[in-house]
Amino acid sequence: MSTPGLKLLFGRAGVAGSEEFRDRFAGRRSTVASAKDPVCGMEVDTSTDLKFEYEGVTYYFCGRGCKLDFEDDPEKYLDPNYEPKM
Ligand SMILES: [Zn+2]
Known about the structure:
Layout: H1 4-15, H2 18-30, E1 34-36, E2 43-45, E3 51-54, E4 57-60, H3 64-72, H4 74-78
Antiparallel strand pairs: 1-2, 3-4
This protein binds zinc ion (ZN).
């Protein structure tokens, strides 16, 4: 699924007050960015190479096992009813 709402938000921010937005964004990026491993639910550093792009969204993983599982069946882990577990 794409996220049109998010695109709209970024698009508008890009037009009005872009300097402030970029500064704030840059400030956030200086701290360690993290994302949630969709397979096990762990917080992972987005600087990892263990990532996989699916339908325009990049997902990050704690390890090869989780990444391979996700690649195998992304829909299973993106299902809202899926409960991440170790
Ligand atoms: Zn994991």
